[in-house]
Design brief:
By secondary structure, the protein is mainly alpha-helical. About 60% of the residues lie in helices and about 0% in strands.
Length: about 80
Amino acid sequence: MAGRAARWGMALALGALWWWGVLRLVLAPDAGVLEGAVVTGGWGLSLLPVNCVPKPRAVGAAGSGQEALSLRRWWAARGRGRGA
């Protein structure tokens, strides 16, 4: 439970920091590089794929063995398998 609370606390703190940067860039005439870096960094993190499945478990993913299996089936269907 403590781990979950720590993750939520960190997420809320980083979200608040990002919104501080956005509002400061929009509303404050003296906003500068620090606010821009915070906003850009937070936006860049939002582009990370966080809902991924690890390669070995993803169907059809590169490196999961699906390509090799499909190539072997195709090769066997053409009559060029090991037994042919």
